[in-house]
Every structure is written in C-alpha cells, then in structure tokens.
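fold description:
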Amino acid sequence: MDSLLPRSGSTTQNSLKSITPEEIRSEFSHHDPTVARINNGSFGCCPATIIAAQQRHQLLFLRQPDYFYFNTLKPSIFETRRLIQTLINADNPDEVSVVDNATTAAAIVLQHTTWSFFLSRFHPGDAVIMLHYAYGAVKKSVHAYISRAGGHVIEVHLPFPVKSSSDIIFEFQKALQKGKENGRKIRLAVIDHITSMPCVIIPVKELVRMCRDEGVDKIFIDGAHAIGNVDLDMKDIGAEFYTSNLHKWLFCPPSAAFLYCKMSEESSDLHHPVVSHEYGNGLAMESAWTGTRDYSSQLVLPEVMEFLNRFEGGIYGIMQRNHQAVIEMAEMLVDAWGTELGTPLDMCSSMAMVGMPTCLGIKSDSDALKLRANLRTVFKVEVPIYYREPVEGEVDPITGYARISHQVYNVVEDYNRLRDAVNKLVKAGVTCASLSN
C-alpha cells in the first residue's frame, strides 16, 4: 500500500501551538450543525480562515482588476505550483499545472492522446486501458475522446469486496494481455490511485511497473482523492501524468487541482482544452489564464499550508489520524450491523467501505440512492451508499456498502448517528422497496 507516513527527510514542525478542538469547531462552524456529514470524499471541506483568505484574493481582484492581472495573478499561481511541487516531490514547478479539477486534467491528457490518433501516430484499434471502477466522469471522458478517435477502450474489472492488492494486480495483468491481442498496442493506461465508489487504495506503483514491462506508452494516474490522503512522490510512482484535487482532502475551496506532467519533449505538446491568450506558452501558463474568471481558489495554498501546520505532524499527522479514526469507526459499524468491510484495513485511506445489513434489501443503484436520501432527510446523516451486484451463487450477500469519510471536523457522534439510524430502520422492518423515490 502507498505509505501514509511522511517521506524521509520531510519536516512538518509546527511554528504555532497545536490547534484545539474548540478551534477546529470554529473553523468549520459554517457546516450545517444539524447534519452528521461523513462524506468529505465527495466535495471536501474548507476552513473559515481559508474562506477568508479566498475572499481577500477576490476583493483584491475586484478592487483593481488590471493591477491584479498584471502584477499579482501570475506570481501567485507560480507560488501555488511551487508548493505543489514540494508536496508531490516533482523535479520542477514547470511540471505542475493548476487546473479546476481532476476531470479537466483528464481532458488535457485524453485530448493529447486523441490528437495522436488523428495525426496517425497511433493506429485505429490501439488501446487505452482503465479500471472499471474509474470515476464516472473520467470513464465517460475516455469513451468520448478515445472511442470517437478510433481507439479501443478496455476496462479492468476488479473484484469487490477486495481481499488483497494481489486481486487487483492479477486482474490488471489479465487486462494488459487482452489489450495486446491481435497486435494492438496499449497507448495509455488510466489508473485511479484511490477509487471513488467503491473506495479502494490501488497499488499504483506496482501497476505502473507492470505497464512499463508490457510496453504501455503513457500512464495517467487519477489521484482525485489522493493529496491529503496518502503520501505522494512523483519520482517514486513514475507515471507521466498525475492529477489530484486540492479541494477534496487538502482544505482548498472548490475548485482547484493540479496536473503533473513529467518533463519530456512530448510534454510541450500538451494544451489546455480552453484556448486563450497564453496558448503556446506551455501548459502551466495556458492553465493559469483561461479567460476572466475567479482564480481565488487556486491562490490560497500558502494559507492552507499555514492551516495544516497548526496540527501536530502537519498534513502527515492529519492523514494518519484520519486513517486511524475511519478504521475505528468502520469496525464499530461492522460490529453493530454484523457485516464486513469491503477492503482490508491497509487499503482504506481516510475513507472506508462498510457493509450494510442485508435485510435493508439494497438491490439496485436506485435503492442505494433512495436509502441515502432517507438517511439525509429523516436522520440528517450524509453518507454515500454503494450497490454491489451479487455474484451468481452467493447466499444472502451484502449488496450495500456505506462509504464513510473522516476529516478533522468529524466526531464520534457522527458515526453513532449513522449506526443508530440504520439500526432503527432494521428494527422497524424498513426495506428499500418500501422507501419512496
């Protein structure tokens, strides 16, 4: 598994006294106090001090837009890129572009791949491989770009529940062999670092090595959930492209993300899908200005770093505590419901998949959405529910899993409310079939 521990030599020494529980509550007092929000994974969170910093940037622009554009924006974006370079152990800030989100980053990489088909660098039928559990928007992007260009899309069907990382490695190896059938070449592998639904840490370094051994041209890691969740080292991972959202687990406002592109001759041919005045000046510059818009969410990373260092151990301490807390809460729920986890503990990050009681009758994606809506509206608990289609021959299988998150604002009571809500539904004999749409 990718380490939750800091890289050797990294320091997170606090210059301030560690943040107190009262200060944490104050930082997130804008959250709806009536809701147990255990779904940080979907939209992330932003502390009050960072919201205030964002508003300062917004007002600076509105006060004198011309000065902000000519004198402030570019150096501020560069500072964000430099800080990201340090966080992910890239060689050069020019390898880092700041974009809106991981979906935008995927469009940049897939657009480049599509051009290679149109320019006959790639041949019709050459393959792009991705995980079946890839994020829905990215899966659609792969089909929209690659299939229309004549490429062949191969999905790696992964098991769930997952028993070990070797399950994933085995299925990925089979898909690589399938991709090379009939003389095809695999031009791009799209690999999630932490899948969204179901949530699993993928052994990306092992899969990257397998791709190299099998002659895959380029590798794009979709790490939308990764920064702030697991330690990131671009040199160690070894992929050409890597993206992660800054607004999911790194406390930035939405929306902000980075795209890492390993320095090469080909990297100069990458372009932002929105062509604006910086076209041709390199992807980092093209991404830094796509037209008049609010760039403030991409400028607050210096303030975010200050916020992180108010916690013992900085970002690495936060990751470790979130990981440990989500495991403890997941095991509590499993014991309460008599179910099981969807992955081994070392394949959880700050999120975990918790099996739900089978008597709830979760038999479709629609059922999962109805149950989620019921938990939200009746019990004020916000948590995603995943439907797993049963395998033929299974007896009374667990088909519904709650994806619980833990971030610094969460407390034990949040998970107790989920436990008690589900127990109440079970005791009352409620099933998904009886819930209204």
User: Anything to note?
Assistant: Confidence is low (pLDDT under 50) at residues 1-15. The longest strand covers residues 186-192. The two ends are 39 Å apart (CA to CA).
